[in-house]
Design brief:
This protein is mainly alpha-helical. The chain folds into two domains: 3-214, Hypothetical protein, domain 2 (Endonuclease III, domain 1, Orthogonal Bundle), CATH 1.10.340; 233-289, Arc Repressor Mutant, subunit A, CATH 1.10.10. The protein is built from 15 helices and three strands. It has helices at residues 3-17, 30-39, 45-58, 62-66, 70-77, 84-100, 108-112, 119-128, 139-150, 161-168, 175-191, 210-214, 233-246, 253-256, 263-275; strands spanning 251-252, 279-281, 286-289. Strand 2 and strand 3 form a beta hairpin. The protein is globular, with a radius of gyration of 22 Å. The chain binds a DNA duplex (10 and 10 nucleotides) through residues 36-48, 79-85, 88, 115-121, 124, 136, 138-141, 158-159, 186-187, 189-190, 194-197, 222-224, 226-227, 229, 232-235, 237-238, 241, 272, 276.
Length: 303
DNA sequence: CTCCGGTCAG
DNA sequence: CTGACTGGAG
């Protein structure tokens, strides 16, 4: 298969079929791109849209977010899920201000060093915000490349170096064209080459897809190891955080005790939130979101 | 490798 | 009811 043909076909398809998403509007800054990418980690586009708009309206720059306490970021995150991302995005804003004068860095190395920015997000920002030529490999791209090139119906659970190499080989030489192709690969995986029910009939590379050529059936088992939610610490963390999010300032432990009956699990979940930096003890058997309200006053000394 | 939210289509 | 969703970090 010709790499050139593959990227060209998918890019041309993308130009005609791309969803109209706010972070794809020409001229959006690197900060907006970064915010969108972090929100989109493990979260579907349709749920990110409103949160993205609200977030950027309130914090249009890294400096604006860095100036507010983490508690505000956690609240604004709402029910997007994985609230540690809100914490890390706040930490990331602080790091951008401290290390890069408030400007999102454009070098891959510097991006990777930021909190909450990993292999995928760093390359996404470098490519989509700065037009650089990097393989941008998320779960969609892994699946598309795995099918089209290797002929495998499913990719592995995580991005490996080999995935980056395989994807890089499909990219056009011109940086701008490569960035466009990366967005196109992702869109193809999100809309056409989906995990369970691929729409091969409308796929622009159906005729040169190794998986189709192999005649293999659709993937059998789950793409990812099943994750339980009900009854897990994650659910309890979510319940605890919901109470803290809706309160202003410290919350008595007694109120947190009401969200879950199992003392052991509830305590473990709360301790985990503290360890992650999302929650902090506020004295007198109370807890609050990180940095919510005034600093903890030092114990008053008896005169 | 495991943990980490929350929602929704099938 | 399960699987999937533009991953990252310990």
């Amino acid at each position: 298969m010709s790499e050139h043909t593959f990227a060209t076909r998918v890019s041309r398809w993308y130009e005609r079929n791309a969803r109209d998403l706010p972070w794809r509007v020409p001229g959006v800054g690197a900060w907006a791109i970064l915010v969108s990418e972090v929100m989109l980690q493990q979260t579907p586009v349709v749920r990110v849209l409103p949160a993205y708009e609200a977030w950027l309206a309130r914090w249009p720059t890294p400096a604006a977010l860095a100036a507010d306490p983490p508690a505000e970021a956690i609240r604004m995150w709402g029910r997007l899920g994985y609230p540690r991302r809100a914490m890390r995005l706040h930490d990331c804003a602080v790091a951008i201000v401290e290390r890069h004068g408030g400007e999102v860095p454009d070098r891959l190395e510097q991006l990777l060093a930021l909190p909450g920015v990993g292999t995928y997000t760093a390359r996404a920002v470098a490519a989509f915000a700065y037009g650089q030529r990097h393989p941008v490999v998320d779960t969609n791209v892994r699946r598309v490349v795995s099918r089209a090139v290797a002929g495998e119906p499913d990719a592995g659970p995580a991005t490996r170096p080999a995935d980056l190499v395989a994807t890089e080989e499909l990219l056009p030489a011109e940086p701008a064209e490569a960035a466009l192709a990366s967005a196109a690969f992702m869109e193809l995986g999100a809309v056409v080459c989906t995990a369970r029910s691929p729409r091969c009939a409308v796929c622009p590379v159906e005729s040169i897809c190794a998986w189709r050529a192999s005649g293999q059936a659709a993937p059998a088992g789950p793409t990812r190891r099943p994750q339980r939610y009900a009854g897990t610490d994650r659910q309890v963390r979510g319940l605890l955080l919901a109470v803290l999010r809706e309160s202003s300032g410290p919350v008595p432990r007694q109120r947190l005790d009401q969200v879950w009956t199992d003392d052991v699990q509830r305590s473990r979940a709360l301790a985990g939130l503290v360890t992650d930096g999302l929650v902090e003890p506020a004295g007198g058997e109370t807890f609050r979101l990180a940095g919510d309200g005034p600093a903890i006053p030092a114990p008053a000394l008896d005169a």
